[in-house]
Amino acid sequence: MAEKDITEKILLSYADVFADCINALLYDGRPRLTAENTQPAPTESFYKHDKPHNQFCDASRYLTEEGSILLQFIIENETQLEERQILRKVSYQAGSYRQQLESGVPVYGVIPVVIAWTGKSSRIPASLHTLLLKNGVPSVELQRIDDAKLTIYHMNNLPPETRQHFTSDMGFVADYLNEGSFEERKGQKILHLEALCDMMEAVTGDTRFSEQAIQLLKHKQEGEPIMMCEYIDMLEARGEEKGEARLSKLLTKLYELGRDDDAKLAVRDIDARDEFYREFFIPNNVYPH
């Protein structure tokens, strides 16, 4: 899980990808943030409970104008949403505001964004008031307590109108998680190949994505742009190659056991073939020798 979290952070560490995510999710695709008008912000903040503690967010950047900070955006990746997720959001804001308290610079706003990579919905409290009510705080007292809202963007449940706003490599990830393909972005360039491939493997479990990185990087080293259409062709070819190797292994097993009829059935019937794969524990990542 920790390795997966780190992998998800790498792609977001690029300024263009970070800005694109904020623009697509919060600004309906308007280029509010760019790689040029943002700069890295601290991902570590501090709080005190008995003794000083630190906390880390996944990615953070400042929106600047004429050298001054206007806003701080924080992106938090979640592979498992917590019941008290709203408190995590509030703690990131509080950590930043606490650091501003004695800084002497103009105060700027802090906007945390939660991106979820698993599950298409969640039933966790979407506001501080909801969480407090659930934990027994009388509703009559809520008017005296400042509320905080939690908006979660589920990457595998984004509507097409939101996904079309992505212009960076993150668009490939969003489309694949929702459509199962990159077809809508065939003509788009891949800018951060290794980070994209690693992230695709992390969120799908499919090793084909990172297997192609080495071959495509050769093109990049030669100064050629890497287009998604080329990547798609290589993925499909690799998938066919692995499928043939897997079927070959199954047929060899069946013929060795004298199960000729089952071998013929495996060729004709996909469902039967899947049953045989499970019977002989033949995984989906079989490679040709």
How is the secondary structure organized here?
Elements: H1 2-12, H2 15-26, E1 38-40, E2 44-49, E3 51-56, E4 59-65, E5 68-78, H3 85-101, E6 109-116, H4 128-134, E7 152-154, H5 160-163, H6 170-179, H7 193-204, H8 208-211, H9 213-221, H10 228-256, H11 260-268, H12 270-279
Parallel strand pairs: 5-6, 6-7
Antiparallel strand pairs: 1-4, 2-3, 4-5
Helix pairs in contact: 1-7, 6-7, 10-11, 11-12
Structure summary:
The chain has twelve helices and seven strands. By secondary structure, the chain is α/β, with parallel strands linked by helices. The protein has a five-stranded mixed beta sheet, with helices on both faces. Strands 2-3 form a two-stranded antiparallel ribbon.
Can you count the helices?
A: 12
Rg over C-alpha atoms, rounded to the nearest angstrom? 24 Å
| Main beta sheet | 5 strands, mixed
Strand order of the largest sheet: 1-4-5-6-7
**Strand residues, percent:** 15-25%
Helix content: 40-55%
**Which oligomeric state applies?**
single chain
Spans of at least 5 consecutive residues whose pLDDT stays below 50 are none
Q: Span from first to last CA?
A: 31 Å
Number of strands: 7
Average pLDDT metric: 84
- Cα shape: globular
The helix-strand sequence is HHEEEEEHEHEHHHHHHHH
Helical/strand content category: alpha/beta
